[in-house]
Each structure stands twice: as structure tokens, then as C-alpha cells.
Amino acid sequence: MNIKRAVFMAVLVVAIAALALPLVGLRAAASGSAAPASASAAKARAVKAATAAVQQSQQQREVSEDVQADSSLEGKIPAATLKLLGLNRVANPRAASEKLGKRLLNKGKKADGGQVSIQSGQPLVLDARSALSDALSIAIGGRDNQFSEVALIADWDGREDCVADREQKVDDFSFAETEIDVELTRTAISEHTVANGFNQNVYYYGDSVGNLWVTVDTNPGLSTAPGGAADLFSQVNIVELVNNGFTAVASPLGQVNLIAPGGALVGGTATSGDCLDDQVVVTGIAVNPVADLGDFGTGLCGVIGEVVYVSVVDSEGCAKNAANQPLRTRIFAFGFVDSATGVTSVGAIQILKSKFINLAGVAVDDDGSLYYQLVDLITSQAGALTGGAILKATELCRTVTACPGLLSPRINRVITAIPDPPTLGSWVGTAANPVVTANGVRNTNYGGGNVGLWGNIVAIATGPCNVLYAAVSRSFVAGDVSFDQLTMGLFGAPTQFGAAGTPSMVISFADCQGLVDGCSGQASFPDQVDPDVGGTLPRADGFADVANASVTTRIAGVNNFRIFVQGNGPNLAPAVGGTAVVPSTPVGLLKVDMQIDYVPAHAGLAVSGEGTVFVISGGAPAGVGKSPSPMLGEVLCFEDICPPDRRADFVDLRGDTLANPPASGGNIGDGDSDRFDHIFYQAPLDINTVTPAGLTGLARGFLRYTNRLAPNGLGINGSAVTVIDSTGALLGSLGQTVGVLADDSTLTTAIVFESLDPGHQVAGGDDQNTPNRGDDNDGAGSPPLTGLLHGGFEFLFGGPVGTANCVWNGFFWNSNGNITFG
């Protein structure tokens, strides 16, 4: 019977592969090579897929048996579970890490001059001086793959078609990964960028052997450098940090683990009894772009910089807690201050050590609160693992040692310590499991408890209004081995969803109520005439709100989230006149061909300032885990503007044709909103394996924060924008010497839109690369601008009369909440 099933699967996948060939043929291949289009190549690919199907069928059976056999072993994660997740062991992690560091030290030197560098196929016309808050960073590559690079991708051609039309390589690891299982896992963009007033761009990324890479592009702009635009590099090996203390650690190669070029990592010494295994995997990177760094040491109180939270998984668990349970997850807070060469470290704090596993990474909202996921990969019931939790750490007003006297208590926008939750059902706010406040942090079980659905989350990200989004794999459903099971997560769905479970999907959570604001609206000032409304305004309580206000009882994993878009699997939208399991789910909720692979190292989610969601679909390369998507590899784009309601909009941009920038599929709809209308980016084909490269680590950049002081101003060509008080006295330059506007202060000169886009590609569309669709007015409007490509935003609100094209090129920002023109 097993042989028959395997043969059936092989035939089925051959058929699927044959149908997929015309689509895959349009995918970008490596630079200088062509995607295979011959009949022999197509036949070879189909045979390869058929062979893979047989292997996958056998592998799935082995994994299921291994999980059930090993799940009773206390403290040990089954090897088959780790293999399924793509968390593969490297034979010599230290040597692999040192090889990577040596490659960076020698980058650009003659020793590397003869190496061939791979390009992923997108037009290399992205100008990195433009607003990276409107771009994405992504890692391309993976196990058994010719690609291993970090890139920027964006849709800046002036068309609203949600298709990436340009790229820039940031860094290239393609020839430095000496072992097959060394790969990049997560990426992030710093707030320290040219568009935000600095002279460099800073990037972060992590890998599968425990390195946090901090790189600097010292001369951003257009770049076709084979090795990537970054030219200053820092390597932080987190295993060395924990095992040898937070100091500079020399390696046999002579380089040191640095946080910034020329600046050694500072902090304390190794904690007695603490250790990490020789290999950990970076599962998450989240940047808090504005923070007071007073928690990182004396003399830093009042110094504004950014905090980078990094989560890692130690699958072996070197250290143990008091209950003799291995500690498998660590979260670190790295502090950075702006410098003339990029960013410099001010220290690192280990803020969480947990016995549970973090797969989905970490996220930070606009308030500075930290979200993280923990799952149990050991305890199982009926062959399925039991669940996971989403937790939230919220900073409270607290005393900071380095900020004495009147400067404390205070809010630094930094999370410094989180206790390990006793269970995944802890901190739910009941008498048995109360909220825990410790070290100035309020710890809550944001998702409401231990839920199988939360265990299937592979990526999280925050969006506007502190909304948390999550990419969720299809839930586990027991039964005979099938192709569908290759795409499922390890956790079952809540029983309310029935036998079919839940599909791949993107969901969102909001935390807007539950407590009341006791500060705002109190009639406690002599000149206040408004009524006292103190204690009545709702505020967040640390728990995801029930999605339907009319529902009074929160059921974790059932009614405390909203479905943004559905992918492959059962349809959770109700029939006309029917009732949805998830309250308020509309009839006809958007459902497309989308597969969220349960391979956390190849997942990604990002949300723009407009609420547009970008998610990786089928990001795992062929042969990883259960090999759920050997011929996929896409980033899908879902807008949410008509209306902005945390539901993906129906868009009909093209027919059943893949976008081919700049043609973008023709922009002629076919009456539906399907996968083709939402494809933002496709992974390039690996010519060695004839399969798409893996994708992971999706992240976006940040806006400009004026209290993060930068050397360049917001005026014409980066000039100063002066601030005056109510008497006309000069206070300084906004964003350069003045961080925030005091009462009744205002600007004497306009903030110019183009100063936020020095690369002139985002403002109205690129007018430098063919086809030219930008609307740059080249000097027209008010305030008057000179020079080619300036003035691209062109707001047309009622004037200014008498100027060419009646265009506003800038605006005035006033402290009392007014935006004015002219």
C-alpha cells in the first residue's frame, strides 16, 4: 500500500510539474544565464520532481513516526522535528563562522577578485539613497543553492501595480558558506539611512550558525558591485558572546567580534553557568528605531539611538534552568548610537532565556513594546504537538540606574528583562495565571493562551496603529501521507475549526482596549475648561482584542484575531447567510494560491506604513524539511486601502500572466483577484538544481524620526529647517539640533518632500530609468526648487497661484498639530 501511495504521488507531481513549466520559465535566472526552456530540461525537471515526491512520501512517514516515538523523551527535541523545520546541524559551526568572517575581511581585496558573483536577475537600478521605508530587504538562497545574498527590492517605477521592478545587492555570501547548511535566515534595515538624514545606510542580518551581521554602505546610491553595496562589516557571533562574555573575542583568524567598524562590543562578563551550544540559529531581528540608551550604561542617559532585538534558538540546550530543563531560546537587546561611520555599539543585554522554542522571531510596535512567539516542540497529543503562545512585553514607568534624580522614573523605550513563562498558558490575566510585572516590564500572554494555531505561526511583523500581523502555515491534520501534509505545520487547529483545520493565511491582532487611560483628560490644570474625562479613555491591556465588539468572551485562537487573507487549505469564509468560525469574517474573503511553508528559516512578513502586507509564499528551497514547495518561491503583495480594515483588498491588475517588469503583466485585468494579481517578487532559478532559490527575512525600513538627530536637514537639498518659539527666538534646526517641537513653536522654512528621497526614485516615480514615469517638476512650485529631478511629490492642494503648475513642494509642521502649506 505504501509503494502504491508513493507511485501515485510521483505521477501526481509529474503532472503538476508539467503544468507549472510554462509559468516557471518566466522566472529570472542567474545573471549571464538563461532559464532552461528546452524539452530535455523540462523533462529532467519533471523526473526530478517525481523522484522528490517519492522521497517526500517516505520522509513524511519517517517524521511522523519519529515525532511520536521521541515525544516522550523529556527535554529532547526529536531529530526528525528539527529536520522538518530545516534546523539542520553544521559539522563545524565555529569554523564555518570564521570562514564567513574572513570572507568579509577580504572582501574587495585581490584574493576575492577572481570569484564569480551571482546576480538574482532583477534590474539593478535601485538607488539606495531613496526612502528605504518604502523598500524591502530580503535574503535569497538557502541549502544546496548557488545564491546566498541580501538584497533590496522595491516598486518605484511610478505604477501602482505592486510589482518589484528594481533591486540592489547589499551583501553576498555565495562563496563563503563552506557547509551546505550554513545560510542566511533574517534581515532588517536600520533607521540610519541617507533618506533619514545620515550619510550611510546600515543593515542587519542573521544566519544559521549564530552570527549577527552589521554592515554599512558608506556611499549609498546606484550600485552594481558584484559583492554588494556594503563595504564595512561587523560580525557578532552570539555563541562567543554568551560563552566568553560581552567583550571583544579574538578568533584564530585575528579578527574580533565587533558591533561596528572599529568599536568592540561592550558589556559585562560571561555569567557563571550560562552557555550556548556551538550552533544557534537566528530566528528574528527587530529594530526599535528610537530609544533612550540609558539602560546600556552610565553616561548614556538621554542619548538617543536604536535597539536591535535578536532572537536565537539553541536546539540542543547547553544551559539548564533550576528545574533541569534545557534553555532553548534567547533574546538579546543590542544598543547602537549613530556615528560618523554608521552606528557604534553601546552594549548588549540578554533579556530572555526560555525553555521553549522561538520560531517566528520578534517584532516591535510604535510604542516600543516587544512581541515574541514561543512553542513547545516536545509535548504531543495524538501525534500532534500541543501549541504555542504569542507574548507581549510592555515597558512601564521605571527607575533606571544610569538616570538618577529627576530623570527617573522614566520610559526609555527599551525592554531590558523578561522572565521565562512557567507554561505557555501563563500571564493570561486570571487568578491562576496573572499578568506578571517585573523589572519595569508588564508581561502578558498577548494571544490569550497556549493554542495550536499560534504554534503554526512562522513570521510576525507590526503595522500601523500597533497592529500585529502573523504568517500562519496550514494546520496539521492527521491522516495518510499526502501532498497536502507536506505543506502543513506541526500543530493542529482549535476544535472549533473542525476536522479540516485552518489554511495558510495572514492574520492580524489589535490591542486597543481593556484598560483605561488615567492620565489624559483630567481637569487638574487651572486653565482647563474641558470636562474631566480621566479614567474613561480606553487603552491597550496587553491582550489581543476580540475581533467582534459584540462578543464578550475571548476564545484564544478563535475570536481574538482577524483573517487578513487566506491561502491554500480549507475556506474559513462563511457561505452567504452562514456563520463564520472567526467572528465577522466576511463572505467572499480574499483567498488566493498562497502557501506559507512551515520552515521558519525561510519565512518572512513585512507591513508598509500604508498597511500593505508582503508575505513570502513557498519560500523553502527544494529539499529542505518536507520540501513543501520545490517549484515555488514568491513574495505576495496585498494592499489594504479600500477601505483600510485589516482585510486584503481585491485587486485585478493583470490576467493569469506573470509580471515581467517593466511590463508588469500588461496591467489588463481578467475579472478576478488571484495569485497573479498579487505577485510582488519571484525567486530566481538556481541553474544547478533547476529550482527556485529560497527566500527569507522580509523586512522594511523606517521613516525619519526627528528626535533621532541626523547631520542633514529637512530643507532644500538637505539644508536646515529652523525652529522658532512663540516669541520668535531661534531654537535650532529640526532633526539636527532640535528633536521635538515645544509648545507654540513652529518652522520658519518648509520641510521639502524631496529631502526625504535624495535618490529621486520614490517621489512620484522614477524618472531616471526607462520607462520614465516620474512626475518630477524640475524646479516648479513652492518652495522653488532648482536642479533636475527635484520636486517629485507635487501636492496640488489649491495652489500656489502664480507658480508653475501650482505645485507645493513642501509643508510646514507646527507643534500644535497643524500641517500647513505656503
Question: What does this 3D model show about the protein?
Answer:
By secondary structure, the protein is an alpha+beta fold. Helix content is 11%, strand content 24%. The strands form twelve sheets. A five-stranded antiparallel sheet has the order 14-15-18-20-19. A four-stranded antiparallel sheet has the order 3-2-1-33, with no helix packed on it. β21 (457-462) and β22 form a beta hairpin. The radius of gyration is 26 Å and the shape is globular. The termini are far apart. Residues 1-73, 108-116 and 246-268 have low confidence and may be disordered.
Features:
disordered N terminus, globular, alpha+beta, 822 residues, five-stranded antiparallel beta sheet
Give the neighbour order of strands across the main sheet: 14-15-18-20-19
Q: In whole angstroms, how far apart are the ends?
A: 78 Å
Number of helices: 8
Give me the Rg, rounded. 26 Å
Mean pLDDT: 82
3D shape: globular
Q: How large a portion of the residues is in β-strands, by DSSP E?
A: 15-25%
Can you give the helix content as a percent range? 10-25%
Class by alpha and beta content: alpha+beta
Q: Specify the biggest β-sheet.
A: 5 strands, antiparallel
Low-confidence stretches: 1-73, 108-116, 246-268
| DSSP summary, beta strand count | 39
